[in-house]
Amino acid sequence: MSKSAMNSMLRPFQAFKAEHFRFETSADGRVASIHLNRPDRKNPLTFDSYAELRDLFRDLVYASDVRTVVLMGEGGNFCSGGDVFEIIEPLTKMAMPDLLAFTRMTGDLVKAMRRCPQQIITAVDGVCAGAGAILAMASDLRIATPEAKTAFLFTRVGLAGADMGACGILPRIIGQGRAAELLYTGRAMSAQEGHAWGFYNALHPAGELAAAAQTLARNLADGPWFAHGVTKTMLNQEWAMGLDEMIESEAQAQAICMATGDFRRAFEAFAAKRKPVFEGN
User: Fold this and answer.
1) Within this chain, do residues 205 and 233 fall inside the same structural domain, yes or no?
2) 20 to 30 Å CA-CA from 59: which of 22, 30, 50, 165?
3) CA distance 57 to 72
4) Are residues 65 and 122 in the same domain?
5) Taking 80 as the threshold, does the pLDDT of residue 1 lie above it?
6) Tens digits of per-residue pLDDT, 202-212?
7) In 3D, which of 134, 136, 154 has the Cα closest to residue 145?
8) How are beta strands 119-124 and 31-36 bridged, if at all?
């Protein structure tokens, strides 16, 4: 496939209109923001919002403009999980094939978040529970307010803590013992615990959270974003590799990055004592 054909697959997302959440981008399109916007219900997910989020993250692979994504909720909370009356109640009446289709669909959202090349920064305030906690877990970086409470509360409704990859991903973030406690008990993890355990990268006052998320996203978007995408890919792939495979895969990944103009431009900028400009090619 020619370079022009490859480029024809890319498209800008500045004009994207979401139906089940609020989507917007910065003026240059590099930083996208997703706002879960049902604040009267603490921003729960529905069948439709699950599917639209899954499709959006899948499609961001073809974005010509978006380099980072900020995910947050409105009204002082992040996300209370699946809507009790629009998801939980219907699930109690479904047969196994439909239940499996639903759980596979929710898992596909996590897969799409991990596979999209953009770094996803989740900003958490207030309630972050159930599927909301999974969204935060599946993100690349997480920041929160001191008031944030994060709960993987599946056992509270008679379900396994093994939901949407939690038993695989959460232990890699906070450790096996801590993850086991949260997944077995369903108790809320305080923001301070989350920060100390490495779930949250930083805590910010509520009035500064959105700005902090945007600043972090902008710094990544204006940095070596192609190389950041390679780093994200390797962080995911190396979970299932032995040491020899890890080192060989990273050798190949780094050689790819060295072949880009960004590597040369960064050196030339360093030699000239000026700030580098990264173009991703």
Assistant:
1) no
2) 165
3) 15
4) yes
5) no
6) 999 999 999 99
7) 136
8) unpaired
